[in-house]
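User: I'm writing a tutorial on reading structure tokens. Could you give me a worked example: one chain, its sequence, then its tokens, then a sentence or two explaining what the tokens reveal?
Assistant: Sure. Here is the example chain.
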Amino acid sequence: MLGRSPADMAQAARWVVSSGGGMAAFRGGELLGSVRLPIAGIVSERSVPEVAEEVGIFRRALATLGFTHSLPIMALGVLTLPVSPELKLTDLGLVDVTRGVIVPLIVED
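And here are its predicted structure tokens:
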């Protein structure tokens, strides 16, 4: 899910849940691009050309939202994988994988 506001993120989350899995990008309440992945939330039953078309649209949507990465789909795909280095989002919160600690989301002086 990708968006630049809490409302867009909520819409993206609802889209992913209602689709049975996948990726979605919203801006201003508008769906910019999505990839439906209903099998375990990571696989599609559709043909490669069909999925490739959705992936292309989704990649362009990511770029319009300012998400620049040489492999944007891979970057999003491993964001929640808590065994790869750096910061990861998990069900426990934001984890600094290198140090093995939960990172507080609110920084106090």
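What the tokens reveal: Strands lie at 22-27, 30-36, 87-90, 93-96, 101-103. The chain is about 35% helix and 20% strand.
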